[in-house]
Structures are given as structure tokens and as C-alpha cells.
Design brief:
The complex is a heterodimer of chains A (53) and B (507). Chain A is mainly alpha-helical and 53 residues long. Chain A is elongated, with a radius of gyration of 18 Å. By secondary structure, chain B is an alpha/beta fold. Chain B folds into 2 domains: 254 residues, FAD/NAD(P)-binding domain (3-Layer(bba) Sandwich), CATH 3.50.50; 234 residues, FAD/NAD(P)-binding domain, CATH 3.50.50.100. Helices cover 23% and strands 25% of the residues of chain B. In chain B, strands 3, 4, 7, 8, 9, 10, 22 and 23 form an 8-stranded mixed beta sheet that branches. A 4-stranded parallel beta sheet of chain B has the order 16-13-12-20. A 3-stranded antiparallel beta sheet of chain B has the order 17-18-19, with no helix packed on it. Chain B is globular and about 70 Å long. In chain B, 54% of the residues are buried. Classes of the chains: A mainly alpha (53), B alpha/beta (507). Chains A and B meet through helix 2 and helix 3 of A and helix 6, helix 8, strand 26 and helix 9 of B. The structure holds flavin-adenine dinucleotide. Flavin-adenine dinucleotide (FAD) binds next to helix 1, strand 4, helix 2, strand 7 and helix 8 of chain B.
Chain lengths: 53, 507
């Protein structure tokens, strides 16, 4: 990993934030993602309904 | 609006005049997301008394967003499309498998009302011409995939596409070959992005790049894939809407950071501010905003073409060319937008249309991608050589559906209650949009980035800091995003097929 990253120094790909293992865990945690599924759907619905008269 | 039965033509006056007792003909050109939504609602609201006719060159409806998955072999063509005639028969909509060639809003010697000249594309009728009369016309013909605008671009030439399910299926065939070579240990270079300095639809290409990365990871071939994202955006994450700001990790950050992070995590390098000007076998030439000319080699390129209108013409009563009263130079239809050229700093949400009605012929509307936007959303940029390199404004599925819906609602109210009032409005500067960027197809390991913005066109007067409602703007990546994308696939196909309670489902 470190060898690969060093080859990118000073290139655009070197600087962006990269997810930690904790972030990756929550991204695929079933229960947390179930909660997100309903929450995001609700947000989307609100936007659809609000968007036109 | 007044309808006179004698000459079957509309004349405008201020009197409310219900025209319910006359059988009206509403012609919808195009059966994509926008046209199909409009036709379905028109029929539902107007019932058997009025006639709804759909003209579209293909007998299929396709759910275009899922073409990404066809392009990586996760869905078959049949899973993303279905035949329209069965659905239209059930609904009582007349379907003509034909393409519109010209619009004659004033009629001619033979037909007194407006009509559309169409040319049939169905087997058995191919090439046959017909004049289809209308009282109201909805142009929902979407974009022409303008591969010709970039020499060498497109299927059958030197690059691939996922813009239609046939293109996507062909792309999957090519991808299988590339995967075969990688399995033999051969490194492959993938170039994904925009194939024209003013192309739009960055989101779709971005999804495809992420899906490729995911597929290679699943096959443990990532070390043999060199994926490059090439884009006309000033910064990645612009997506043709000038980027957006989102709340994340205690900061308000731009979609540039979010998008760069996703690309870097997937080992995808990027070339930005690049307008692809020519594609040769294995080699794409591009110009950048700083004026330099470069080229990049590839083994596999999926590049989105520029979009244009379908190239329909307009003719007056005596056969004179009135195309410029109906269409902008881009081929998209003129509507109630403010097309006065203005500097970027003076753009306003009020430049954007809200009724989608042609100013010269008020019984003609344009919905979805078919309407001409007043200008881009991203800031226009030019290279020192004068090449404009920036994304054209996207009109994604949700606004396309919503516009189709409000146009159908307004037309049916005018027919039922008379008057010229448009009660239903949908300005892209007031309307939000949600976009789910697929980043891998798997119910347990898949990923999707859920992005919502409100409004689509930034309103710097109402939201002086971020241009949009920061509380309604979301950018989240996770397995839930993939579930939502799958859920939407089935939900929208359910709705489009007119299955039980379809009308309850949102656009
Ligand atoms: C690969 C890809 C992925 C995408 N993913 C997403 C996504 O995830 N989310 C999202 O919101 N949006 C997405 N989009 C954008 C979305 O597909 C479009 O916004 C939407 O299809 C526009 O709808 P429309 O009805 O205006 O045009 P279309 O869907 O293109 O429909 C146009 C219709 O007009 C017909 N037509 C063409 N010429 C004529 C003619 N001369 N006469 C009569 N009919 C004609 C066509 O056959 C078609 O039926 C994606 C686009 C692509 C290409």
C-alpha cells in the first residue's frame, strides 16, 4: 500500500481524504445501512414532493 | 384559450372557455421518462373522451439509468426495457412507432390544425409517412446522441457508450474481452468520461467508472486495471450543476472533495478541464482549458457524446421554414425561458422555464431533455484557443419526470376547465433532485452514493452562502445507496408498466 501511494506523490490522487476502516465498516454494516435506507428515502421523497406545485 | 370547432384551431383570448365537450387530440413525441410520464397522466386525467397519441421510433420503453449495470453484465437488456404497445393498449393510448420529422403548428392546405409529420420505423411500415394532427403537442424527444460532433467517437468507431441499452450491451461484450485479457495477466487501460468539450451526463460516466473498479475488485483483477476519468468539468464533482456543497464530518465541503475521494479510493486517476476533440483507435486527443493539446492511450474507452436536439424542422402554413421559432440552434425546443445572453454573474433562477410552453405556439410544450435551457449551470470556460470546455446542463430523470407530470396536469386542466392558466409550475431553480450514483452491484457488498440537491440550479439570492439549501443537500456513500438504486429500478419500471397503484408513485 505505502509503496503504491508514494508513487502518487504530487499527483492529484495523492491528496483527497481516504476512508478509514471504520468508515468502510459502517458503509456496509447491515443494520446501520437499513437505517440509512429509510432515512435517505425519506429525504428523497421530501425533495420530490417539495419540488413542484 | 379558445377552441373553434369550425377550423380546429386555437386562438388565444382571455376568456375562460371549457372545451370539455370537444374530443381533443394530444400528441406526445417520445416515450422516454418524460414523454411516457406525460402520456400516462394525460390519459388518466382526460379519460376516454379525449385522444392521447404517442409517437416514438422504438416500441420499447427503457429505464436508462440501469444501463450502467447492463454495461458491466449485471443486468440483461430485457431487464431494463419492456414493450410499450401492450401497456398503451390497456390504457387506451394510440401508439405510433414512428419518428417525428417536422412540426407544422399552423397546419397546411389539407389539415387546418397543427400537425406533425412522422415517418414509421416499425417492420412492415418502415418509411411510411403520415401527418398526425394535434390540438396540444408535447415534445419529449430527449437528446440526440451527437457522436458526430467528435470525430472517431462512438460505437462502431473508436469508443463505447452506455447511453442506450443496445450500446450498453455491446460495451459489456467488449468488457468481457478486456477481462479475458486481464485474466491472462495483460494490463488494460480504461478511459471513462466525457467525449466532447461540452458533453453533459458526467454522473452516468462516473457511475460506469466506479462499477468497473468494483467489478475488477470482485474478480481480484484491480492490479491489472488502469482506470482514468477524463472530464470537461473545471473540477471533478461539478456534474454539470456547478458542483454542490454538503455537510460532512463537521465541515461544509464541496462535491469536488467528495468525488476526488471516491476516485482516489478506487485507484482511478483523473484528467479534468479536458475537452476530447478526436478519438482514434486506442488514442483520445483532448484540449485542456490552459490551451495545451494532449492525448491519452486506452484499450477500452467509454465516453459520453455531446447531446443535441433531434433535428426536427418547423414549417408554417405556406411551407415557410419556421424552425427558429420552435427550436434553438442546439435543436432543443424553445420554451418560456429567458434566452437573453447574460454574463454568468447575472444568471438567475428566473431565467429557467416553469411551464415549458413554446412562446410562439402556446399549445406546444417541451419536456425533459427536449427543452432548450437558457444557459449552462456550470460557469462557462474557454481555452486560449477559444474552445469552450465546460459541461452542458444536465436534466436528469427526476426533473424530466416532474416536468412531464406538470405539463400533463396543465394541459388536462386547460382542456377540462378552459382558460390559459398554468397552475402547475416546475422551475429547476426551485425543484430539487436526487441522484443515486451506483458504485458496485451487490446486495451485500455493493455501494451507491446518494446525492440530493435542492434546488438543481443554484439560487444565489435565496441561498447566498452555498447557492442551495445546505440542509437538503446530501452526499453519502454506502450499501443503502445500492439498495435505493435497485429499489428505484423496480419501482420506476412498476410505474411505467402501469401496474397497480402506479399513479401513487412519485417521479
Ligand atoms: C447511462 C445513463 C445513466 C443515467 N442515470 C441516471 C440516474 O441514475 N438518475 C437520473 O436521474 N438520471 C439518469 N440519467 C438521465 C436520464 O436517463 C434522463 O434524464 C432521461 O432519460 C431524460 O428523459 P427524456 O424523456 O427527456 O429523454 P429520453 O429518456 O431519452 O426519451 C426520449 C424519447 O424520445 C424518443 N425519440 C427520439 N427521437 C424521436 C423523434 N424524432 N420522434 C419521436 N420520438 C423520438 C426516444 O425513442 C425516446 O423514447 C442517465 C442517463 C444515461 C445516458
Amino acid at each position: 500500500m505505502s509503496e503504491k501511494r508514494i508513487t502518487k506523490a504530487n499527483r492529484d490522487e495523492f491528496y483527497p481524504p481516504i476512508p478509514t476502516s471504520g468508515t468502510k465498516f459502517w458503509r456496509s454494516n447491515f443494520l446501520y445501512q437499513m437505517f440509512k435506507f429509510f432515512r435517505l428515502n425519506l429525504k428523497i421523497m421530501r425533495i420530490v414532493v417539495k419540488g413542484h406545485s | 384559450m379558445r377552441y373553434t370547432k369550425k377550423n380546429r384551431r386555437f386562438t388565444y383570448n382571455s376568456q375562460a372557455n371549457p372545451i370539455q365537450d370537444i374530443r381533443m387530440k394530444i400528441v406526445v413525441l417520445g416515450a422516454g421518462i418524460s414523454g411516457h410520464t406525460a402520456a400516462a397522466l394525460l390519459k388518466k386525467k382526460l379519460g376516454r373522451q379525449h385522444e392521447v397519441i404517442v409517437v416514438s421510433p422504438s416500441e420499447y420503453y427503457q429505464w436508462i439509468p440501469s444501463n450502467i449495470w447492463v454495461g458491466v453484465g449485471r443486468m440483461s437488456v430485457e431487464q431494463v426495457r419492456f414493450k410499450l404497445p401492450r401497456v398503451y393498449d390497456r390504457w387506451g393510448i394510440v401508439f405510433k412507432q414512428a419518428k417525428a420529422v417536422s412540426i407544422h403548428p399552423e397546419g397546411d392546405e389539407e389539415i387546418k390544425s397543427g400537425f406533425v409529420s412522422v415517418e414509421y420505423t416499425s417492420e412492415g411500415n418502415k418509411g411510411k409517412k403520415e401527418k398526425v394532427a394535434y390540438d396540444f403537442l408535447v415534445n419529449a424527444t430527449g437528446p440526440k446522441l451527437n457522436f458526430e460532433a467528435t470525430p472517431g467517437l462512438g460505437p462502431g468507431k473508436n469508443s463505447l457508450s452506455v447511453c442506450s441499452c443496445d450500446h450498453a450491451s455491446h460495451t459489456w461484450d467488449e468488457l468481457k474481452k478486456a477481462i479475458g485479457l486481464m485474466k491472462q495477466g495483460k494490463k488494460q487501460r480504461f478511459l471513462i468520461g466525457t467525449g466532447h468539450p461540452k458533453a453533459t451526463c458526467q454522473g452516468a460516466a462516473f457511475e460506469y467508472a466506479l462499477n468497473l473498479a468494483f467489478e475488477f475488485k470482485q474478480r481480484k483483477l484491480s492490479h491489472l486495471a488502469d482506470i482514468t476519468w477524463i472530464s470537461n468539468e473545471y473540477e471533478v464533482g461539478d456534474f454539470g450543476m456547478g458542483g454542490a456543497f454538503i455537510k460532512r464530518g463537521g465541515y461544509i465541503t464541496s462535491t469536488k472533495v467528495f468525488t476526488e475521494s471516491v476516485l482516489a479510493e478506487n485507484n482511478i486517476s483523473w484528467i479534468k478541464r479536458a475537452g476530447v476533440i478526436k478519438v482514434e483507435p486506442g488514442l483520445a486527443h483532448y484540449e485542456t482549458l490552459d490551451g495545451s493539446s494532449n492525448s491519452v492511450e486506452f484499450d477500452f474507452a467509454m465516453l459520453i457524446p455531446a447531446f443535441a436536439g433531434q433535428g426536427m424542422k418547423g414549417y408554417g402554413k405556406n411551407g415557410e421554414d419556421i424552425t427558429s421559432r420552435l427550436f434553438a440552434a442546439s435543436g432543443f425546443m424553445l420554451v418560456d425561458a429567458d434566452y437573453t445572453p447574460k454574463p454568468f454573474e447575472e444568471w438567475s433562477v428566473s431565467d429557467w422555464p416553469e411551464r415549458y410552453q413554446n412562446p410562439s405556439y402556446p399549445n406546444i410544450y417541451a419536456t425533459g431533455i427536449a427543452f432548450a435551457p437558457p444557459h449552462s449551470i456550470s460557469k462557462p470556460m474557454k481555452s486560449p484557443e477559444g474552445t469552450e470546455i465546460f459541461p452542458s446542463p444536465p436534466r436528469t430523470g427526476m426533473p424530466s419526470g416532474v416536468i412531464g407530470k406538470i405539463v400533463a396536469e396543465n394541459i388536462s386542466e386547460i382542456i377540462k376547465h378552459g382558460g390559459t392558466n398554468h397552475r402547475h409550475l416546475a422551475n429547476m431553480g426551485r425543484m430539487g433532485a436526487a441522484c443515486i450514483v451506483s458504485a458496485g452491484y451487490s446486495m451485500t457488498r455493493g455501494l451507491g452514493a446518494t446525492m440530493t440537491v435542492s434546488p438543481i440550479v443554484p439560487d444565489w439570492e435565496k441561498y447566498p452562502d452555498w447557492g442551495r439549501d445546505i440542509n437538503a443537500t446530501v452526499g453519502e456513500i454506502g450499501l443503502a445507496g445500492h439498495w435505493i438504486k435497485i429499489f428505484l429500478h423496480y419501482m420506476f419500471l412498476h410505474k411505467a408498466k402501469g401496474y397497480p397503484f402506479w399513479w401513487l408513485l412519485p417521479e
